[in-house]
């Protein structure tokens, strides 16, 4: 026979207020809606919102154009920010060597080809989203595991010293602006 | 597969990519090009330390990477251990085309911009290697924590210059036999000199060490008396342990007014402490006390190791 506990167990439901939403337009004119908590992960966007004086009342009527980020990357970024909007602030890493484990959901999100990943990092850098930057960089850093220098050169598209020297020579040989 | 053009990324992103990499991945990456090797320090590698002790060891905050030197293969195995634990936590492979492993040490210091903190020359490093490493680090750093010199075909003038330019902050171990003319200028916390006949009374009186062990010493009873009287008068506040043995010491006369040999027979005590990472013991010492209340144990008798040698052990109670 089960015994009723003296203290009742209360099922705590997460209380979510009606979110304030903002509209973002990517460089190729795709429109995205993002919640206030999520957009705060981007320092650039949040500074913009604050400076433009956008409020709950006028936010949806004033879409924010982001010229440096295309729709594909913006979709990934919005997904990421919505997923992580309630995350607790993380302590600053003091010992960087793989101190955190990349969550599986994020690893899946970032399983994209190298060109897309490259563009996503540029977008993340522009929008100043530290957590996404950490995660993208982690994915790129993980490519170096157990690789020879030659393999690393191919993976990261690194020119050889001879190629760098040739490039430098051709740059110095080419006539300057005065002809 | 399209490469991910690392060097096309903003410098902040490159730094974030490098930071989670371990030292071995960074060293492999540093060999892809000169341009890349100049960026490796962005991973905050200056916080790491390198030491040489049969292996090249890179110490990070939590882990150490022990590079096992091989002179035949184009790669080296690296054992990763958690600091404070000798058990292997993992293995890495470092690719290094050159057979010149000294150039690997120099490469590590150059790309990581970190100090080399300990060198034990051992049997893997000859004097030319040692000289090459020291010349390289002398322009980069002014001190080193530990230096251990095993017998080497060394030039004393070069060594004197090294001692002048690089301060040894923690421990100096000299197993090499230096000539009596050797001029020593340094003041580490702990010294062990196996053939210490060159370490004269001036060196002893000028020392500020916490522990000193001098074997095959040329010091005499008169020298010991001079030094210990100064200690009694309050000098050498750092001194914790002193052990001197040599054939010029004898059991005739007195030390600090005490008849020789000095040994507590009635109620012998064993005092011990870990000093500079080594357990130091004084067994059967006679307790003495300075006017300011500082106590010490002194023992002086025949050396067990060499029949014609006499050994003094002096242990300050801290």
From TrEMBL, chain A:
Residues 130-166 form the SKP1 component dimerisation domain. Residues 23-85 form the SKP1 component POZ domain. Signal peptide: none annotated. GO terms for biological process: ubiquitin-dependent protein catabolic process. The keyword rRNA-binding does not apply. The keyword Hydrolase does not apply. It comes from the Eukaryota. Gene3D superfamilies: Potassium Channel Kv1.1, Chain A (3.30.710.10). SUPFAM superfamilies: POZ domain, Skp1 dimerisation domain-like. Keywords: Ubl conjugation pathway. InterPro entries: SKP1, SKP1-like, SKP1-like_dim_sf, SKP1/BTB/POZ_sf, Skp1_comp_dimer, Skp1_comp_POZ. Belongs to the SKP1 family. This is Skp1-related protein. The lineage of its organism: Eukaryota, Metazoa, Ecdysozoa, Nematoda, Chromadorea.
TrEMBL record, chain B:
Residues 3-51 form the F-box domain. Keywords: Signal. Residues 1-15 form the signal peptide. Coiled coil: none annotated. The keyword Signal applies. InterPro entries: F-box_dom, F-box_Sdz-33. It comes from the Eukaryota. Pfam families: F-box, FBA_2. The keyword Electron transport does not apply. This is F-box domain-containing protein. The lineage of its organism: Eukaryota, Metazoa, Ecdysozoa, Nematoda, Chromadorea.
